[in-house]
Design brief:
Length: 311
């Protein structure tokens, strides 16, 4: 049984032919800015067809297609309610792609899809209940209970980046104040790094990033490793707020594992060990409850393809 998984992003469309959790062939094409959605979906169908060909399988051997898409997706209908990155509103992605390909198409939010990929084949494969957070431009969330994706009504749940961890705090992209995303996204980390770099002209941050444009999610971590106190302040604060969010998720779901993906997760144990230490100190009933493993994602970009194929 072959399935095709597609990770539709604002910049690239990555797709793969999948069998039993293995990617047999994959490719990446440009999404193209400001194109009519019909043209983008047609490209996706074309990409899927040539991938099947590359993998040496006939079109009728493809059982289904799954798509991970940014924004708000209505899973039941496969409609993209809105996706700012794509400039899409009420786009019938699932039905159109399905009619082009002649197979069932399932669509879900990209963070959910990545969580499913990691849960089945990546860092979470040995755990039944898992929460995934993608620490990128925003903070994406995915909830896996009993190895199944929990999406909520109309698939609009699982927005873990938009739980408030500080009432009246920083303004979030969603319009609310104090969301986890406003503190734990790579964008938040970068903007705090830029701020403190400006205030401390003798900081090692200037060595790591010669210009503001060079500041990224790794800058503060790298400067901290050189013993820089300004950078340590930024990182400590970042880790503190992220831990606050994780503790909330532990108290709600008590998962066996939390998997962190996205650029910031490249820090690995330097990030997860610090989170675990804070969580041990602060989590309600931690001593009497099962420990929650905090891990980093292992599949990288393939999580989106494998998760989408598994929808
Ligand atoms: Zn928010």
């Amino acid at each position: 049984m072959y399935r095709i998984g597609i990770d539709l992003g604002g910049t690239n469309i990555k797709a793969g032919v999948v069998k039993n959790g293995k990617i047999l062939a994959k490719s990446s094409i440009k999404t193209g800015k400001n194109r009519p959605y019909g043209a983008v979906i047609k490209d996706m169908a074309e990409q899927a067809r040539s991938l099947a060909e590359a993998a040496g399988i006939a079109p009728e051997e493809v059982e289904s297609v799954g798509v991970g898409c940014p924004g708000a997706v209505t899973g039941k209908t496969g409609t993209v309610a809105y996706a700012n990155n794509l400039g899409w509103r009420d786009v019938p992605l699932g039905p159109v792609l399905s009619s082009l390909m002649g197979v069932p198409v399932k669509v879900s939010n990209d963070a959910n899809v990545a969580a499913l990929g990691e849960a089945l084949y990546g860092a979470g494969k040995d755990y039944r209940d898992m929460i995934m957070l993608t620490l990128g431009t925003g903070v994406g969330g995915g909830i896996i209970i009993d190895k199944r994706l929990v999406e909520g009504n109309e698939s609009k749940g699982g927005e873990l980046g938009h739980v408030v961890i500080r009432t009246g705090g920083r303004l979030c992209t969603c319009g609310r104040r104090g969301c986890l995303e406003a503190y734990a996204s790579a964008s938040a980390l970068i903007s705090e790094t830029v701020k403190i770099r400006r205030k401390t002209p003798d900081s090692a941050l200037w060595k790591i990033a010669k210009s503001v444009g060079e500041v990224n999610g790794e800058t503060a971590f790298a400067a901290e490793k050189l013993g820089d106190t300004a950078a340590k302040k930024v990182v400590d604060e970042y880790v503190y707020y992220l831990a606050e969010g994780l503790m909330n998720f532990c108290n709600i779901f008590r998962p066996q594992a939390i998997v962190l993906g996205g650029g910031v997760s490249a820090e690995g144990r330097n990030l997860t060990d610090r989170l675990v230490a804070l969580m041990k100190a602060g989590n309600y009933g931690y001593a009497g409850t099962p420990a929650v493993e905090v891990l980093t994602a292992t599949l990288g970009n393939d999580a989106g393809i494998l998760g989408a194929a598994s929808l």
